[in-house]
DNA sequence: CACTTATAATC
DNA sequence: TTCGCAG
DNA sequence: CTGCGAAGATTATAAGTG
């Protein structure tokens, strides 16, 4: 199939807000793909490729922009092959060679094809459709239920893989896809709760577990071989030798575990997330060996457990994994008990707790109400130093706020940015407000007189080398504008720093 | 060799 | 990772 | 209730520059 068909479909999908129209458009093209085109085409439709790192990002895309071709000629296979080529280039001179390959690809692409390619490689397709809509398109084309496709994607580890099965083998093929050790599955996700009472009101009797501030890890043991995957299903086995050894030594046969890795200090206290990531990100050389795994769920042990209730999976976990490699947890429906447990987790230096419905199955890939996360929120009253013009649906509005804490003698120290928590009404208000405080412009940044105070919620702060105060906010979001406060009432840089540990 | 830029990963 | 909006 | 897009901070490594 010609790539331009996919490109036209993407453009059509972007131009409508009607989900059903998007689904129908995708279903039309998916139904006409040759078997070998299915996986790459579905990946392209979701704005990604079958391969992870291409070594090409926004900066390269910005520089390499040949004139579009006037006639479409590229096939789905052509684009797929170009992607494989890009990913394979390395060594000295690789940047120039990647540019050459990219230039050749884009020069052969018509205008809509260029838009799709740039969106895919840049990772910002913004067509109003990702895995959810595309899965629905696959289901429609294959004549099966969306849930079947989603389930297949969860256990096959990716939507493109499930799509190929759906479109070539239909419902029976999809039904045959099962959780298989050594084959990573989409991890179950949690939605946020304001406090443990809020969480428990949704879950009922729950397993309340420490939430560690590390990286999610999925451990598979199959035929005496261990594989470790991240939340995004990247294989990190050779970065975590110690963890792999631990899993290898557990009793029983084939096994799939869900957990978190992080580093511990000599006294057993959790290291800062930044330090854990330092070890985690480092290649081999044994640096990641300082990381330890703490498991909280088991998906497979002598058979699949994903459809079993959490209560059962917990029992299996405690029989399989020693307490030292498990997360502390309690079973309760009582908010006071849960709150006390949360306090202990915080006192031990951890991020918070997870509250999980004891009766719930392991809903791979879902972010439902069965798992809720609870972590403390801190607030600061900060001063807006500058604002950036928004993109996409925020085009024409001042959006991203530069935030400053009060330093010495009327100086403000920037500690981060945020665009979160703003309603459309607030965006309108702040655009007018900050244009009124404008001092000057620098690209898409509007500098303003430091007068407007805003209450900012954060999960915490972190050490920073790029911000002048040596501290940066973590997950900052707007709570409200403080019309009752002036800049002189804002919180100080020392108050922000006091949250460091 | 030191430093910068680009990319991709975690949260 | 958080949050608001639209379907 | 679900999916999407608005963008944040940090880390590491590879490749390019002077």
Automatic annotation (TrEMBL):
Keyword Plastid (UniProt): no
One Pfam family named in its UniProt record: DNA_ligase_A_M
Protein name stated in the entry: DNA ligase
Role: DNA ligase that seals nicks in double-stranded DNA during DNA replication, DNA recombination and DNA repair.
Entries under SUPFAM superfamilies matching the protein: ATP-dependent DNA ligase DNA-binding domain, DNA ligase/mRNA capping enzyme, catalytic domain, Nucleic acid-binding proteins
Keyword annotations of the record: ATP-binding, Cell cycle, Cell division, DNA damage, DNA recombination, DNA repair, DNA replication, Ligase, Magnesium, Metal-binding, Nucleotide-binding
GO biological-process terms attached to the record: cell division; DNA biosynthetic process; DNA recombination; DNA repair; DNA replication
EC number: 6.5.1.1
Domain ATP-dependent DNA ligase family profile: 294-407
Source organism (scientific name): Ilumatobacter fluminis
Top EC class for this record: ligase
Catalyzed reactions: ATP + (deoxyribonucleotide)n-3'-hydroxyl + 5'-phospho-(deoxyribonucleotide)m = (deoxyribonucleotide)n+m + AMP + diphosphate
Family under the similarity heading: Belongs to the ATP-dependent DNA ligase family.
Key word DNA damage present: yes
Family matches, as InterPro entries: ATP-dep_DNA_ligase (IPR050191), DNA_ligase_ATP-dep (IPR000977), DNA_ligase_ATP-dep_C (IPR012309), DNA_ligase_ATP-dep_cent (IPR012310), DNA_ligase_ATP-dep_CS (IPR016059), DNA_ligase_ATP-dep_N (IPR012308), DNA_ligase_N_sf (IPR036599), NA-bd_OB-fold (IPR012340)
Molecular function, one GO term: ATP binding
């Amino acid at each position: 199939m010609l790539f331009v068909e996919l490109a036209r479909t993407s453009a059509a999908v972007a131009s409508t807000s009607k989900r059903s129209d998007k689904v129908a458009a995708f279903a039309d093209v998916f139904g006409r793909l040759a078997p070998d085109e299915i996986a790459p085409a579905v990946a392209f439709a979701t704005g990604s490729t079958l391969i992870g790192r291409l070594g090409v990002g926004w900066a390269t895309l910005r520089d390499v922009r040949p004139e579009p071709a006037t006639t479409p000629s590229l096939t789905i296979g052509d684009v797929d092959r170009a992607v494989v080529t890009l990913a394979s280039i390395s060594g000295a001179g690789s940047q120039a060679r990647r540019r050459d390959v990219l230039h050749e690809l884009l020069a052969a692409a018509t205008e809509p094809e260029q838009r799709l390619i740039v969106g895919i490689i840049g990772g910002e397709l913004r067509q109003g459709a990702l895995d959810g809509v595309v899965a629905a398109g696959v289901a429609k084309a294959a004549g099966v239920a969306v849930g079947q496709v989603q389930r297949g994607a969860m256990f096959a580890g990716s939507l493109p893989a499930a799509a190929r099965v759906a479109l070539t083998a239909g419902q029976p093929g999809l039904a045959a896809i099962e959780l298989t050790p050594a084959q990573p599955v989409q991890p179950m996700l949690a939605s946020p709760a304001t406090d443990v009472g809020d969480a428990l009101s949704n879950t009922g009797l729950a397993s309340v577990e420490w939430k560690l501030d590390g990286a999610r890890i999925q451990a598979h043991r199959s035929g005496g071989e261990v594989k470790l995957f991240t939340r995004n299903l990247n294989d990190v086995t050779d970065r975590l030798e110690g963890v792999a050894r631990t899993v290898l030594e557990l009793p029983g046969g084939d096994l799939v575990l869900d957990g978190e890795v992080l580093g511990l200090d000599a006294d057993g206290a959790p290291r800062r997330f930044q330090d854990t990531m330092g070890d985690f990100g480092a290649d081999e050389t044994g640096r990641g060996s300082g990381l330890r795994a703490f498991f909280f769920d088991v998906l497979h042990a002598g058979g699949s457990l994903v459809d079993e209730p959490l209560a059962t999976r917990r029992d299996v976990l405690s029989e399989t994994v020693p307490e030292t490699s498990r997360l502390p947890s309690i079973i309760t429906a009582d908010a006071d008990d849960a709150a006390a447990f949360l306090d202990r987790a915080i006192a031990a230096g951890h991020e918070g707790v997870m509250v999980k419905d004891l009766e719930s199955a392991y809903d791979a890939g879902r972010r439902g109400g069965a798992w809720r996360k609870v972590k403390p929120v801190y607030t600061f009253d900060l001063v807006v130093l500058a604002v950036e013009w928004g993109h996409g649906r925020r085009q024409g509005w001042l959006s991203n706020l530069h935030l400053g804490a009060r330093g010495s003698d009327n100086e403000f120290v920037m500690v981060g940015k945020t665009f979160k928590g703003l309603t459309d009404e607030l965006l309108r208000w702040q655009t007018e407000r900050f244009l009124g405080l404008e001092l000057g412009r620098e690209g898409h940044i509007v500098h303003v007189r430091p007068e407007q105070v805003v209450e900012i919620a954060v999960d915490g702060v972190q050490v920073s080398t790029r911000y002048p105060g040596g501290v940066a906010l973590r997950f900052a979001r707007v709570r409200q504008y403080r019309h009752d406060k002036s800049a002189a009432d804002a919180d100080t840089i020392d108050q922000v720093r006091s949250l460091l540990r």
